[in-house]
Specification:
about 65% helix; about 270 residues; single chain
């Protein structure tokens, strides 16, 4: 990274982190509401225990949770630590992506893809099927931003790779859907995450792609070994064989877990 990028990043990285915090707050809404078929815009954020709509000061990312000591201001019921963790992890992801792409406009597209992957992953970790609309919106808008940014900066390999990766992911997605139109797995076999992954990895180049593929294989293998050993441990007991949906969330959706690790690995390799 050249020294000319340092002043720019000193300004852009904090902005990326701040934006990531607010996007993470919105992702919490997406993860909770979309599987239930609820609107992400109406009504305003509310406490899931007492149904009271929250004041603006109760919605400040990370700060509100800390100020309220992780409890609702009215009913005093605990607020899951997942909410600030999602906000923080989204902010860190945005900072990392912005750093890897030197603060260019291309980073905006990859931040959108990262937000989509976080949403899909959290929904499927909860044992529910991520709505296709979440992945479609993230992939479509992310691809447009990457293509526009890559074209503006004359990164033709990134532009072509993004488009090719997206098309390839659509083909695989269509094949999976045709093979199992009923989608017997309640999480959807991680199908939605394939769209995001194809668009993301396609534009990174051959070396990051190879690193990401290796990380995917290793992580998927570890997840499956963990799932197999956990199921074997409970086999023959009063609980009986452990079904996939009752395993640890990371083991219950190994495809999404592996893709998430692969994207981070490929991003670092391409930075």
């Amino acid at each position: 990274m050249g020294s000319d990028h340092i002043p720019l990043l000193a300004v852009v990285l904090p902005v990326a982190g701040l934006v990531g915090l607010f996007v993470g707050s919105f992702l919490n809404v997406v993860v909770y509401r979309t599987p239930l078929g609820l609107s992400v815009s109406r009504p305003r954020s509310f406490c899931p225990t007492c149904d009271r709509q929250l004041h603006w000061w109760e919605n400040v990312p990370l700060v509100s949770w800390l100020a309220l000591r992780g409890r609702c201001h009215t009913c005093h019921q605990p607020i899951s630590i997942r909410y600030p963790l999602v906000e923080l992890s989204t902010a860190v992801s945005f900072v990392l992506i912005t750093w890897a792409w030197h603060g260019t406009f291309i980073a905006t597209g990859y931040c959108v893809l990262a937000a989509g992957m976080i949403s899909v992953g959290l929904i499927e970790y909860g044992g529910r099927r991520a709505p296709l609309s979440v992945a479609a919106i993230a992939t479509g808008s992310g691809a447009v931003l990457v293509v526009v940014g890559a074209g503006w900066l004359h990164h033709w390999s990134t532009l072509a790779g993004c488009l090719i990766g997206t098309v390839a992911a659509l083909v695989v997605f269509g094949a999976l859907r045709a093979a199992d139109p009923g989608c017997t797995d309640p999480r959807g076999h991680g199908r939605s995450s394939l769209l995001i992954a194809g668009c993301w990895v396609g534009g990174l180049g051959p070396v990051p792609l190879a690193v990401g593929a290796a990380a995917w294989v290793l992580t998927y293998f570890c997840c499956m070994v963990g799932a197999w050993s956990t199921a074997r441990r409970y086999a023959g007991t009063a609980e009986g064989p452990t079904p996939a949906t009752s395993l640890h969330p990371i083991l219950a959706a190994p495809l999404v877990s592996a893709l998430g690790v692969a994207l981070v690995a490929s991003l670092i390799a391409g930075g």
